[in-house]
Structures are given as C-alpha cells and as structure tokens.
Amino acid sequence: MLQKNSQIEPLFWQKKSLMDMNDAEWEALCDGCGKCCYRKYIKGRGRRERLYYTSVACNLLNVETGKCSNYLERFSLEQDCTKLTKKNLPQFGWLPQTCAYRLLYEGKPLFDWHPLISNDPNSVSRANVLIKNGIHEKDVIDWFEFVIDEH
Ligand code: SF4
Predict the structure, then answer these.
(1) Domain boundaries, position 131
(2) Among 24, 45, 55, 119, which is most exposed with the fewest C-beta within 10 angstroms?
(3) Pocket test for ligand 1, best of 18, 21, 25, 31 (most atoms within 8 A of CB)
(4) Over the stretch 107-140, which tens digit does the pLDDT of each residue have?
(5) Is residue 11 part of a domain?
(6) How many domains does the chain have?
(7) Span of the secretion signal (predicted)?
(8) H/E/C letters for each residue in the chain?
C-alpha cells in the first residue's frame, strides 16, 4: 500500500493541471519506472536526426528495481542528473511514452498499473514497464551496442 499524504488530494491527476499540482502531488506522479535514468543519444542532423534509447543505465540506478541508489545526493554524484520540473517538462520530449508526466502533458490518462491507481508500487514491475537487462554506464564502452526500441 502507498503511504497516505495529507498534501495529496485524491484523484489529483484527474482534477488538476500539471501547473496546479503542489510539490507532493508532482513527486507522487512519478511511477518510479526509472526509464528516464537510461542513456539516450541523438544521431544525425536535420531530417536525419534520430533519438536512440539504450539499456545503458546511470551508474546510480538499481537496474533491478528502477530506483536511484542515492536519491538525496544524485545531483552532486551525477553531473548530468536533471530534475524534472513544471518549467522544463516541455523540453523533455525524450521521456518514455509511459511516463506519467509525458502522458498528462499530452492530455492522456495514466495507465492502470500506475501506483496512484493500483495503490501498489509493485504493479509497475508486474506490468513489464521496467527496462530489462540494464547495464551500468561504467561497464559499457559502446552505447550503440545497447540500443533498444523506443519505450
Ligand atoms: S520515466 Fe517518468 S515516471 Fe518513470 S521514473 Fe522517470 S519521471 Fe518517473
């Protein structure tokens, strides 16, 4: 069961816009899939530009659970770790298609497996949303060998 938080209004993701959510609601929106913590890269220019997703994970990510192993110190430990905010969300077009922030930004509903709906944090893993066979960046030489389909 998810912990109750008095700052979180029931069904807030259906009632409020992203901009109207408070900090606790904004944080609760994350389904914890960890997919944004896998490396991506862009190749080509102009019309040939293409975004590649990989199974190469940030060194801090627990690839089994999809959780950051040092959430509190992540910004000092990983230079390119970026906080997703209401302001920068429009620039994060690379977020996975299942990401709750992306879904709401695009006017789509959350999936039934989202913990806010299932009331069970394990439902994300059961729905096979986590990236499989993740490998840490420190163990990889060529990211291109770990390109995966868009997620
Ligand atoms: S991809 Fe979206 S929902 Fe998944 S961990 Fe990242 S911010 Fe949270």
Answers:
(1) 16-148
(2) 45
(3) 31
(4) 999 999 999 999 999 999 999 999 999 999 999 9
(5) no
(6) 1
(7) none
(8) CCCCCCCCCCCHHHHCCHHHCCHHHHHHCCCCCCHHHEEEEEECCHHHCEEEEEEEECCCEECCCCEECCHHHHHHHCCCCCCCCCCCHHHCCCCCCCCHHHHHHCCCCCCCCCHHHHCCCCHHHHCCCCCCCCEEHHHCCCHHHHEECCC
